[in-house]
């Protein structure tokens, strides 16, 4: 019986890898994945609305001359900017119920996490926008007989807000993408819908491809709206 011929180590072996994108599977997943879009938008824009209010409050407090107002605002900003949003939502969803003595709805936890996280970043946007306005604007308002409050809200704030639009838009896009992390607490947003669909169809590549396209469509639409607002703001300046 002849001995088997050992393989030649210098011989090149070609491994055939066959993959064909299943367009039908991708198309079939769209109606199911679309059910997650309202949750994604609800969490992101609901949280951003609250975060914008928090950002104005803590952003203005962070430049206040009184240290007992400035320090708590600075602490809030640094804590929520310095910790991952995934840790924040896990703490709210799993940790806070031990403190409040009752469960927290996943949707509520998601909105709260976006609000607190985006509020910290928006605070810095507000601080930078206000401080970018020349002090001569305030002096001009006071010389016209306006109070400091009137000078700020009628002269300083409109100019500062126009400069805030690009970074606020960036934060909105970041917050929309951050909602993808909330699948870990069972929120039925886009990624969670995709996970459930994949568990039944085993078409991970196609489904996550569609999820990515949906996120891209949302963020590009928002970017277009923000560019129009920015141009209108510049034109009216």
Automatic annotation (TrEMBL):
<dbReference type="InterPro" id="IPR010065">
    <property type="entry name" value="AA_ABC_transptr_permease_3TM"/>
</dbReference>
<feature type="domain" description="ABC transmembrane type-1">
    <location>
        <begin position="37"/>
        <end position="226"/>
    </location>
</feature>
<dbReference type="InterPro" id="IPR043429">
    <property type="entry name" value="ArtM/GltK/GlnP/TcyL/YhdX-like"/>
</dbReference>
<keyword id="KW-0029">Amino-acid transport</keyword>
<feature type="transmembrane region" description="Helical">
    <location>
        <begin position="39"/>
        <end position="63"/>
    </location>
</feature>
<comment type="function">
    <text>Part of the binding-protein-dependent transport system for glutamine; probably responsible for the translocation of the substrate across the membrane.</text>
</comment>
<dbReference type="GO" id="GO:0022857">
    <property type="term" value="F:transmembrane transporter activity"/>
</dbReference>
<dbReference type="Pfam" id="PF00528">
    <property type="entry name" value="BPD_transp_1"/>
</dbReference>
<dbReference type="InterPro" id="IPR035906">
    <property type="entry name" value="MetI-like_sf"/>
</dbReference>
<dbReference type="InterPro" id="IPR000515">
    <property type="entry name" value="MetI-like"/>
</dbReference>
<dbReference type="GO" id="GO:0043190">
    <property type="term" value="C:ATP-binding cassette (ABC) transporter complex"/>
</dbReference>
<keyword id="KW-1133">Transmembrane helix</keyword>
<keyword id="KW-1003">Cell membrane</keyword>
<dbReference type="GO" id="GO:0006865">
    <property type="term" value="P:amino acid transport"/>
</dbReference>
<keyword id="KW-0812">Transmembrane</keyword>
<feature type="transmembrane region" description="Helical">
    <location>
        <begin position="207"/>
        <end position="229"/>
    </location>
</feature>
<feature type="transmembrane region" description="Helical">
    <location>
        <begin position="75"/>
        <end position="96"/>
    </location>
</feature>
<keyword id="KW-0472">Membrane</keyword>
<keyword id="KW-0813">Transport</keyword>
<protein>
    <recommendedName>
        <fullName>Putative glutamine transport system permease protein GlnP</fullName>
    </recommendedName>
</protein>
<comment type="similarity">
    <text>Belongs to the binding-protein-dependent transport system permease family. HisMQ subfamily.</text>
</comment>
